[in-house]
Design brief:
The protein is mainly α and 288 residues long. Helix content is 58%, strand content 7%. 34% of the residues are buried.
Length: 288
Amino acid sequence: MGGRRNSPLLCLIMSEDEKEPESDSLKEESNSEDVANVEPVENVPSQLEAGEPEDSVEEFDEEEEEVEFDLEAQIEEFRHQIEEDPDNCVHHYNLGEALAELGQLEEAQEAFEQALLLDENQAFSAIIHFGIGNLYYHQLMSGIQSTVVKSSVGLHSQHRAGNTISSVNDDDYSIPLREFEAAMQDIPSLQADEEIMEYISQNVPQQIATVYYKWASDLFDKARQIDNYGDEVKDIKQGLRHLKKTIGIDPNHSQANLMVKYGKKMLQEGFSIYDEYGFVAKEIQGTG
């Protein structure tokens, strides 16, 4: 099963203030713990390095099975916690993260949505919105979308048969952006320890920049399809606007900066798209 290998599993642990009342002696030991802690689960490589021996493949399979078993055990534990304390948003969030890591995305989204409903004080809404945003981002990066995320930086006269985006659905990008931006807005109210605060504060804006870059890249790739659909110039201009937002967050984003140069050149000089036999399939005039 394929989970979200590119991000750690962040499990929130209930603060002592939020747990059931304990004895006075135990309370004295835990008064200093007033925020959530984080438990990262080691990521498993998504693919093997070329040339690894067969025993490495077997070891990888065993490790993956072990991780999957651990996640399934965690899921059972989180479900038990929900049965014991159904109104606690943290348990629902933890369940959503584990389900997402195991690749059960629909169930994960349901758990995240329930966590949001229960998080009335927005104490954890930043990380919950981040989790939902990553679900949509995972879907965006599936299939052909993942193979052309950086392909727009290259020969803008080249046509890559069978590996080109021919349509772009704005909702595929605006929906994860909406979740990441909601996470960004709720960071000040996030009640978590220093490690998870740092993780969310760094990764939320980076994901926003990445989605805008992905959106621009796909628009550029759409403009370079072999068919003349009439909105090539419009799509390049929109892509440049998205790249501006990426660079506004990450000024050193090398791919985005390079694509800006290509985009401006395409608008000014125009560009030609060639078919697989080397003949001109379409020409887009530049502004001069």
